[in-house]
Amino acid sequence: MNRAAPSAPTSGPAKGVVISITLSTSSLPPSDRAEFWRDTVSRTFFPLDVELYEAEPSAATLTSRQLGPLRVSAVTAGPQQAVRDRRMVARDGEHHLTLAIQHHGTARLAQDRREVFLEPGQFTLSDSARPFVKELPGKFGFTAFHLPRTALNVTDGELRAVTATVFSATGGCAGVVAAYLGALARDAARVAPDTAHQLGLAACDLLASLIREQHGRFVPEAPEASRAMLVRIKDHALRHLADPELAPQTIAAAHHVSVRYLHKLFESEATTLTKWIQTQRLAMCRRDLARPSLRGPGVASVARRWGFTSPAHFSRVFRAAYGMSPSEWQAAVRAGEDARTPASGAGRR
């Protein structure tokens, strides 16, 4: 079968340049493209069962360059699906991790009982040590960063926490990783091989940091640092109590830490972040309902003011905390009765 040849400068590569290898199906008749593309993808990454959705496959291109342990591959092609099954996993001796940044088109990745959908500007990771399915329903383009599993000093548990997880290329550790990898893909072909090798190693270190953070192991070593972070988290939450979208996920994103790490900070408080936020909101509601006014605020409006979206839920948690309903509390205060209630969480006397 006539196969497209890798592109290379006719005069030979200049000294100190990382060589790029381009494989394309554009010169092949459509009837030959599927077999060549399956072989190209499996040789570049690892064995995959690639199914092309088009009866006459569109031209596809894959350009790769090696940077130390890291292989950078730009891929453009038509709609298809790649499957890595248990049989393929069992046959392979060395396992690899692939980070793919989506540039255009969408993608679906399923691995480790999770399924995610990627839009342009997002990235995700897959691990060849376990089965997965990646579907690209339309024409697409992405850059893949492919490296041996042994190049990262992370555990299997840490890897399982990041596969089939969508990362945004903006903000936090994920943004730093995406920005670095994007620059690496654009410029590495123009740097000396020794430098390119070091840049590839640095990319592995960044990726390992992202994996550990996602797994929740990125914890400051000094207790003082943990206490300082806890103070900042609480201050942020108090300033945003009125926002019904306030949640561990949004707080973690605002402080560039993992949700798991966030929960670890509150272990020393003998509560959870969610319960702590609810307690603060209830205290604000209780205060506002006790305002001495003939036409004081209604129960529903106070609940909305402090982030409670369901009046029924608000009434239930208020009664559980203070032993009476919000309206009973408000009436008792206005009547000048002794409205002292049990401590939060003690229930009705």
Fold topology:
Blueprint: E1 21-24, H1 30-44, E2 49-52, E3 61-67, E4 70-77, E5 80-84, H2 86-91, E6 96-104, E7 107-111, E8 114-118, E9 122-127, E10 132-136, E11 140-148, H3 156-160, E12 167-168, H4 172-187, H5 193-215, H6 223-239, H7 248-255, H8 259-265, H9 273-289, H10 299-305, H11 311-322, H12 326-334
Antiparallel strand pairs: 1-3, 2-5, 3-4, 4-11, 5-10, 6-9, 6-11, 7-8, 7-10, 9-12
> What oligomerization state is this entry in?
single chain
Instruction: Going across the biggest sheet, name each strand in turn.
Output: 1-3-4-11-6-9-12
The tally of strands reads 12
- Rg to the nearest angstrom? 28 Å
Q: Report the uncertain regions.
A: 1-16, 217-222, 337-349
Amount of helix = 40-55%
Order of helices and strands: EHEEEEHEEEEEEHEHHHHHHHHH
Main β-sheet: number of strands, strand sense, barrel status?
A: 7 strands, antiparallel
Which class best fits the helix and strand makeup? Answer: alpha+beta
